[in-house]
Amino acid sequence: MSQVNAQRGLSSRQETAPPTGRRQLSDMRIVQLFILPTIILLILMNIFPLIYSLFLSFTNYSVISSDPPVWVGLDNYTHILSDPDFWHNFATTGTYALLSVSLQTIVGFALAMLLRSKFAGSGIITTLVLVPMMLSPIVVAVFWRLIFNPSYGILNPILGFTDINTSPEWLGDPALALWAIVIVDVWQWSPFVMLLCLAGLSAIPEYLYEAAAIDRASVWFQFRRITLPQVMPLLLIAVLFRTIEAFKQFDLVQGLTFGGPGDATETVSVELYRLAFQGQFETGLSSALAYIVLVVIVAISNLYIRALNRLREG
Question: Dihedral angle at the C-alpha atoms of 95, 98, 99, 104, nearest 10 degrees?
């Protein structure tokens, strides 16, 4: 009798338990419904354009032409690397990146050191300092173009230039135009560096400073041996991000100077835009220039990443 009851209980459990194969099929359907469409969308929107633009960089092709792409091999890359105008654009971009990133690093780190200690109103001041990086770059460009205006802008009177005839034309003088863009970029993105530096400063244990104070270490020694090494990894990450963005800078330049006066502020991104969307719409040549910029950015990023790995190992 007990064996019959045991067999009945076993059969009832087998009837109520869902089949294993059906559960696996249900999981597979979930994968198909949610993951596969995402992968397909990623391929269509990112990977395919990347591969297709790489193919176009080896062709003579214009997007507004009805002619199919004509394979020209490395002619586009040879033309870019042998043209002095393109080298001038790269030099302008490199100068802009060096000036803007260096000043952003100094200003951002200084702001982080000032706002590190809590005082009355420090939260409000920190929030106000972070406002510029929340604004659209093209809005910032239009805003600062009004400030730089020699006729009614407020910057020249603040600097003491009250006579319109002798006031500097920040956006019209080839010697000042690039500096004007650098000033705007530093104003907008120094808070980003400050934010990362504040995160690094807040993570430093207080007992390190207490031990240094007991040993009567100077303020400079504490900064050089404690503060700077602890913040350096995050500071290097901030410099990496800002360097990449500086080499891709387009919004501020286009909104402030349109690459002028002349070609004083014509960065690689501005030249890339002109090749791709103005004139003859040289799609093949612009694709080649885009990949050259990509290679430069990847090379610079590798240098920063190696330096960051050395810091972590140390």
Answer: 150
Q: Which of 233, 238, 242 is nearest to 297 (CA)?
A: 242
Give the whole-angstrom CA distance, residue 262 versus residue 266. 8
* 3-state SS assignment for residue 70: strand
The answer to whether residues 195 and 169 touch, using CB atoms and an 8 Å cutoff, is no
Residue in the structure block whose two tokens are 């400063």: 201
Could you give the CA distance from residue 89 to residue 80 in angstroms, rounded to a whole number? 11
Domain ranges for the chain: 2-56, 82-313
Cα-based distances in Å from 21 to 33, 255, 300: 18, 61, 51
List, for residues 266-314, the tens digit of each pLDDT value.
999 999 999 999 887 999 999 999 999 999 999 999 998 898 888 777 6
* Measured CA distances, 233 to 201, 213, 241, 245 (Å): 11, 24, 13, 19
pTM given for the model: 0.84
Evaluate whether 222 touches 212 at the Cβ level (below 8 Å): yes
List Cα–Cα distances, 56 to 213, 232, 236, 242, 292, in angstroms.
63, 41, 35, 29, 13
Phi and psi dihedrals of 66, rounded to 5?
Answer: -85, -10
Query: Residue 269 has which token pair?
Result: 């991104």
Closest by CA to 91, choosing from 306, 303, 296, 307, is 296
Q: What residues contact 57, with CB distance under 8 A and at least 6 apart? A: 76, 77, 284, 287, 288, 290, 291
Q: Which CATH number fits domain 82-313: 2.60.120.200, 3.30.1950.10, 1.10.3720.10, 3.30.428.10?
A: 1.10.3720.10
Residue with tokens 């502020």: 265
